[in-house]
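ARCHIVE CARD
SHELF: 3
SLOT: left
DATA:
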Amino acid sequence: DIKNKGSTLLKDNINGVTGYNFNVIGDNTGVFYLQNDIKNANVSMGGITLNTINNITHNYNFNSFSLSDSINMAVDVDLANGTMDRISADSFGQLNGNVNVVAMNLLSDAKNDLTTIEFAQNGLKDNVTTTVSEVAYSPIYKYNVSYDKSGENGMFVFARPTAGGTSSTGNESDAFKPAVL
C-alpha cells in the first residue's frame, strides 16, 4: 500500500516461481518508482502513480497484469531509437481502470518529423489514456503527442512541427524548444 503521499522505490529485481502475486495499491496520492524488473509475477496496480523515469527506456514485462483502479504513469522516451518505457505481459487480467500517461521524459530527438512508438499490447491498448498531448520537449525540438489505439497495438505518435515554415503558424521557430532559441 502506498498512501498518504508516500512513495516506494524499487531498484532491485524481484524474481520468484512463475505466478506469484505482486500488488501495488494506493489512495491516488502515492508514487511507486519502478527501476528494475518484477519477473514472473502476476502484477496488480491501482490508485498510484507509476514512475519509471530513470533516463533509460525499459519494457516492464510481467507474467500477468491487471488494474484494480486507474494509475498514472511517467515514462522515459528515446525518440532516436524508437523506444519508451512500457508495460507488457504474457496475459492481462481484469482492467478496472486505465494507465494514464501523465509525464514523458524525452531523452533524445527523433530522426524524422513523425515518430511512432509502441506502448501497449493488444490486451492493454484500449485501457491507455494520456494527458500529454499538446507539447513535449526534447533536448532540441518540441513535439505534439497523441495516442493511437486503432491498430494491433497502442502507439504513441510524436509529431515535430516542421522547420521551414510548414508548421501551423508558418513560423520556423515553432519546431524548437523555447530554451534552444
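SLOT: right
DATA:
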Amino acid sequence: RNDHSPALWFDGKQTIFHFSALSFGAGSEMMVTIMRTSRDNGMTWSKARLIVPEYDQRQNPVGSAFRLRDGTIVLPNDIPWTNTCIWLSPDDGQTWRDTGGTIAGLHAGMVELEDGRLMALARGDNIDGKMPLSYSSDRGKTWQATASPFPPITSGQRLVLLRLQEGP
C-alpha cells in the first residue's frame, strides 16, 4: 500500500489532525482518506479511521486545511497531476463531503475572504505566465480562475497562504 500525502493541521484549540491518503497498491491515483487526531501535542493518537472510504482520485490531502468562520473544516485534496478539490466537514471531522469543484493547479493554499468567498493560489495551470488565482462564491462547488500577480512556482515548491490579523 502507498501511504501518501500526509497533512497535519492544528485547529487552534486543542486538536492536531493528521490526514493521509492510502492506496490499494503502489500508485497514488486511487486513494481513500484517513484521519486521526491528538489532543496531547502528538504524544498519543486516535485510531486512524477512513473518513472517505471509497477509492477515488480526489483524495490526496494537501497540507493547507483550515476552518471557516462557521466552524466547517476545509481539507484541500489534490487530484493526481491535475487540480485541487476540497472536502468539507461541518461536524469537526465526523462526516465529510466533496464539493465537486476543481481549483486551477495543485497543492492549493486557501483562505476564506471577509465576504465569505474562498480564494486559492496553486502550483501549475499557469495563466499568462502567472500563478493561478481562483475564487469560489459557493463553498467550492465552482471556481473561477484568473492570473495572479505572482510568478509561478514549480516542482519541489509549495505555497503557504495564511490570513493575517487586520491592520497595518
